[in-house]
């Protein structure tokens, strides 16, 4: 039998995805910081690209959390 049963609330499985998203955010933040330290510039294309990816991942996380609470 599957570990997910019909009477198990779906919300109980959400923390795992939230943790995955948080880890992805941390990885992107670290990559952006490392790239900034290498480039010595906040406006380097590589730093801006990582910043945009980080913004999108944070937005994804926030939307996910909001949907979990509804």
Automatic annotation (TrEMBL):
Which residues, by range, are in coiled-coil regions?
none
Annotated source species: Cohnella terricola
GO annotation, biological process: regulation of sporulation
- State what protein this is by name: Aspartyl-phosphate phosphatase Spo0E family protein
Name the Gene Ontology molecular function terms of this record.
protein dimerization activity
Going by the entry's taxonomy, the superkingdom of the source organism is recorded as Bacteria
